[in-house]
Design a protein that fits this description.
This protein is α/β, with parallel strands linked by helices. Helices cover 49% and strands 7% of the residues. It folds into 3 domains: 39-213, Nucleotidyltransferase, domain 5 (2-Layer Sandwich), CATH 3.30.420.10; 224-316, HRDC domain (DNA polymerase, domain 1, Orthogonal Bundle), CATH 1.10.150.80; 330-419, HRDC domain (DNA polymerase, domain 1), CATH 1.10.150.80. It has helices at residues 39-51, 95-101, 111-120, 131-137, 145-153, 173-184, 186-199, 203-213, 237-257, 267-276, 281-285, 294-297, 299-311, 333-336, 338-358, 362-365, 368-376, 384-398, 402-419, and strands at residues 53-61, 74-80, 83-87, 105-108, 127-130. Helix 4 packs parallel to helix 7 (186-199), helix 9 packs antiparallel against helix 10 and helix 15 packs across helix 19. Residues 236-316 form the HRDC domain. InterPro entries: 3'-5'_exonuclease_dom (IPR002562), Exo_C (IPR041605), HRDC-like_sf (IPR010997), HRDC_dom (IPR002121), HRDC_dom_sf (IPR044876), RNase_D-like (IPR051086), RNaseH-like_sf (IPR012337), RNaseH_sf (IPR036397).
Length: 425
């Protein structure tokens, strides 16, 4: 049978079905080291780290879903010549580690998840390489660490402890091995991805993106209580005020106890109470759906919040929706400003085509919010060169990096000009 002949039917007795062998499991090359829990042990490792060479792989484990705080409960580090360390930062003097890391390049995966909690214990990078962001720039459809390790290094990673309570003490050995594996191959992964970025002509893009990450701070949400799940079921503004005051009371209790707010009472309980607006403890606890560990324990706090909300004058009630400082949602553009809607449609098509050409997600080429803001309120000039400069300045003012401006500004300039021309009927 030639290669061009189709195969039909089922395999015969003499046929052999060959399945690809699974990738080998990633293991610790140096074995599991003891957790550093004393200042003396940290000082010793810091000296080894300072004497090591090359970039430092670093990761942190938090207790999201268990604790209110986003603090680091374990820090993992690895550097050539120093090996891997697992550091319990609670109660330690981090000064030796801070000094050892001074001037080094950090390798992180999904840096925005860890930079804040590392900064909280005094660890701030002078420069960094983010393997997740590098994967996005390189056009990988999936950029989780385990996926990239299998794709580029041909090894599988265990991920069964990603949602563990890392505030637990002592930490089980299997958890510690999982944590150590997160930095085991970051140095090798960085080297491969840096080469790939160079070959793709994207090394400068990555450099600018990594430099931008050095100034990252988590977004502080306006009115975070508005993210309460199912809040749309609350119809009255006094009910909205009850959601706000119940959410704030729960948040205060959670912060005091350092537990995730949902373990006090769930969002569903807040919504049910805000709909019913009970005025006493018995009525509150009788509400179907009002449950959680803290439902009865903090019942007086909940009743007080509801009574306060019910007594608020109309002028003090929260608005149903917040007025944003940005443009309206895109689906409303055609009605509010048809010219802007045409600009947006043209620009989106052009950015999508560019993303396909350079094999990079469109949201990496330009933050969608920057695109909408520019096209809703573009520069006034329509002289092509002046408009190009003005578009670039406006994008830069929003926070776009130079490589993004260079690639997208000409497309957006053209979209602004083309959008002004009403299509034939």
């Amino acid at each position: 049978m030639t290669d061009s002949e189709p195969t039909t039917g089922t395999p015969g007795a003499d046929d052999e079905i060959v399945e690809a062998a699974p990738a080998p499991l990633l293991t610790l090359r140096d074995g599991l080291t003891p957790v550093i829990e004393t200042d003396e042990a940290l000082t010793a490792y810091a000296a080894a780290l300072a004497a090591g060479t090359g970039p430092v792989a670093i990761d942190a484990e938090r207790a999201s879903g268990y604790r209110y705080s986003a603090r680091a409960y374990l820090v993992q580090l690895r550097r050539e010549g120093a090996g891997t360390a697992l550091v319990d930062p609670i109660g330690l003097d981090m000064a030796p580690l801070i000094a050892a890391l001074e001037g080094t390049e950090w390798i992180l995966h999904a840096a925005t998840q860890d930079l804040a909690c590392l900064a909280e214990i005094g660890l701030r990078p002078a420069s960094l390489f983010d393997t997740e962001l590098a994967g996005r720039l390189l056009g990988y459809p999936r950029v989780g660490l385990a996926t990239l390790v299998e794709e580029l290094l041909g090894q599988r990673m265990r991920k069964e402890h990603s949602a563990a309570d890392w505030s637990k003490r002592p930490l089980p050995e299997s958890w510690l091995e999982y944590a150590a594996l997160d930095v085991e191959v970051l140095v090798e992964l960085r080297a491969l991805m840096a080469t790939a970025l160079e070959e793709a002509g994207k090394a400068e893009w990555a450099r600018q993106e990594f430099e931008h990450l050095l100034g990252f701070t988590p977004t502080v949400r306006v009115d975070p209580w508005r993210r309460t799940s199912q809040m749309h079921r609350v119809r009255s503004r006094h009910g909205l005020a009850a959601v706000k005051l119940l959410w704030e009371a729960r948040n205060e209790i959670a912060a005091e106890r350092d537990v995730t707010p949902g373990k006090i009472i769930p969002d569903s309980a807040i919504v049910e109470a805000a709909i019913a607006m009970p005025h006493d403890r018995a009525a509150l606890l009788a509400i179907k759906g009002f449950h959680g560990r803290g439902a009865e324990r903090y019942s007086t706090r909940w009743v007080a919040a509801i009574r306060e909300a019910a007594a608020l004058p109309e002028s003090a009630l929260p608005p149903r929706t917040l007025r944003g400082d940005g443009p309206p949602v895109p689906r409303a553009w055609a009605e509010k400003d048809p010219v802007a809607a045409r600009r947006l449609a043209i620009a989106r098509d052009a950015i999508t085509a560019l993303g396909e050409k350079v094999n990079t997600p469109v949201e990496q080429l330009l933050t969608p919010d920057f695109l909408r803001r520019l096209l809703w309120t573009p520069p006034r000039t329509r002289q092509p060169e002046e408009l190009l400069d003005a578009v670039g300045e406006q994008l830069a003012a929003y926070g776009a990096r130079p490589w993004q401006v260079e690639l997208t500004a000409p497309l957006l300039r053209d979209a602004i000009i083309a959008g002004d021309v009403e299509p034939p009927a």
